[in-house]
Amino acid sequence: MPAIEIQSVSKRYGAFTALDNVSFTVEPGEFFALLGPNGAGKTTLISAMAGLSRPSEGRIRIMNHDVVDDFRAARMSLGVVPQELVFDPFLSVRETLRFQSGYFGLARNDAWIDELLFKLGLSDKADANMRALSGGMKRRVMVAQALVHRPPVIVLDEPTAGVDVELRQSLWVFIRELNAAGHTIVLTTHYLEEAETLCNRIAMLKKGRLIALEEKEKLLAHSVAREVSLKLSAKLPPALESLKVREENGRVVLALAEIAQLETVLATLRTAAVEVRELSVGETDLESVFVRMMHGGSV
Ligand SMILES: Nc1ncnc2c1ncn2[C@@H]1O[C@H](COP(=O)(O)OP(=O)(O)OP(=O)(O)O)[C@@H](O)[C@H]1O
User: Fold this and answer.
1) Position with higher pLDDT, 9 vs 298
2) Average pLDDT for residues 216-222, to the nearest whole number?
3) How far is Cα 297 from Cα 293, in angstroms, rounded to an integer?
4) Residue 199: inside a domain
């Protein structure tokens, strides 16, 4: 049974299509990244998962509960950390978390609230007013709020936007612990290195369409042209001209579809009696994959 099942989901606002026939599943225990530029449809999809907006077409199930037909059970299974800081400025941190527990029908939840406060470094702020907290602390309360009902599936919509490095790292430690404890995590982020270090699978949305869905390693391995920079003893043989992307500092830079192609390049150079004086291979990172794909490529 998948933790999240998105089946042919479309969402239209009038003539505008915010989500266009999106389908994927997330398995229990996965740490899944949802990437895409501003306006790609990530928040729209998360709202649909949380039952806050209804898809124009398609179905979503959280832990096998349909988010429309079986709203309560689906909502109980899901914790959402929203992108915006939404809170009542007149409530204390503890009151905020008690109210949220109340929405889920949890009357006596203080032991868990205390544990959440402790884990998120908020114990000494329990009685502080929400409006008196720094932005980073409010963000932590948003995380605590999403967890009051101990949902098996947790969705974080850019939780580290505008957060300092230290808090970012402590949040990641915490979210990793949740994942290690068996929670399924879906994360949207603009920090690609975050997706790269934390997640097992990565989905990319562009203009409401799912344009890629891969295990991280595969995405990195097969989709990117690697750049190889060569310092040669003579001109590049004509047979290799089609691979050349530029020349810089007396070096010629070639784009290879895969690293194995380097053998052919070296063999061609040897045959042409051109010596390689220096050689370096550029690192592949998710950011370059992502940028290439967002500019029209596909996997
Ligand atoms: N209620 C609405 N009415 C009309 N258009 C909307 C509405 N909500 C969202 N949209 C549009 O749908 C598209 C997708 O928006 P969404 O917020 O899902 O993007 P996103 O991927 O979350 O972007 P960001 O990274 O900026 O949060 C945008 O073009 C947005 O303007």
Assistant:
1) 9
2) 70
3) 4
4) yes
16 lines ligand 1 (CB under 6 A): yes
Compute the half-sphere exposure of residue 187: CA atoms within 13 Å on the CB side of its CA.
31
Contact 289, 219 (CB under 8 A): yes
Q: Do 120 and 251 have their domain in common?
A: no
42 Cβ closer than 6 Å to some ligand 1 atom: yes
**Per mean pLDDT, which range of 106-110, 147-151, 188-192, 271-275 is the poorest?**
188-192
Supply the CATH number for residue 68's domain.
Answer: 3.40.50.300
pTM exceeding 0.80: no
- Read off the pLDDT of residues 257-267 as tens digits, 9 standing for 90 and up: 777 889 999 99
Angle, to 10 degrees, between the axis of helix 135-147 and the axis of helix 165-180?
10
Ligand 1, pocket-test mutation among 9, 10, 43, most atoms within 8 A of CB: 43
Residue-number span of the structural domain to which 81 is assigned = 4-215
d(CA 207, CA 293): 12
Ligand 1 contacts CB of residue 15 (under 6 A): no
Coil, strand or helix: which one is 66? Answer: strand
ipTM confidence? 0.94
Which DSSP helix (H) or strand (E) runs through 3?
none
Same domain flag for 128 and 244: no
Q: Which two tokens stand for residue 238?
A: 């004509």
**Cα(101) to centroid(ligand 1), Å:** 29
What is the b/e burial string over 139-157, where b = at least 16 CB atoms within 10 angstroms of the residue's CB?
bbbbbbbbbbbebbbbbbb
Is residue 193 scored above 80 in pLDDT? no
The count of structural domains within the chain is 2
Under 8 Å CB-to-CB from 252, ≥6 apart: which residues? 229, 230, 232, 236, 244, 246
Cβ of 43 less than 6 Å from ligand 1:
yes
